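Before we proceed, please read the two lines closing this message. Tell me what the token row says about the fold.
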Amino acid sequence: MGGVARNAVRRPVPGSGAGVRIFRSLSGTRPMTPSRLLLCSTALLTLSVFAAVAPAADLEYFIPAGSKAPYAAAVRAGDTVYVSGQLGVDAEGKLPDAFDAQARNTMANVAKALQRAGRSMDDVARCTVMITDMANWSTFNAIYTAAFKPERLPARSAMAVSALPMKALLEMDCTAYAGSR
């Protein structure tokens, strides 16, 4: 009696600084951090847009020859191209140790995925960046901005994460416009 219900959302006391983890999962056991909320929101938005704009016949999948990845590098749905998260692997599929090499490869891999879909970096509308060490942020920004025309920098979200596949230091996915120019 007088306790908090198991699935209740705990609200912070104003001014307490406790507002960082106010969202809870449905089970009420795992905190919903802002980065997890952003990731979930992006996934739901992508799925809803994907379902709304593209009947199955309008989907086009771009899978590199010989790819062993369990996903397409890019998918065109109507006027939109979704580029899967790209790591900084080189042409042989190896991940360099240096962050700047991974960042350059990541940008090149995004460009290749877009090219397969008949698009370019000029068509990118939005990017999501996941980085394992924010100390590399300024290095990434320099490489990222060099990949785009100054007047065509896309919208972007970024988050620090604890780990990525293959122990990569960076991953980036993008959404591009694929309509008529």
Notes: The chain is about 25% helix and 25% strand. Residues 18-27 have pLDDT under 50 and may be disordered. The beta strands are 23-24, 31-32, 59-62, 74-77, 80-86, 124-131, 155-160, 170-177. The first helix runs from residue 34 to 53.
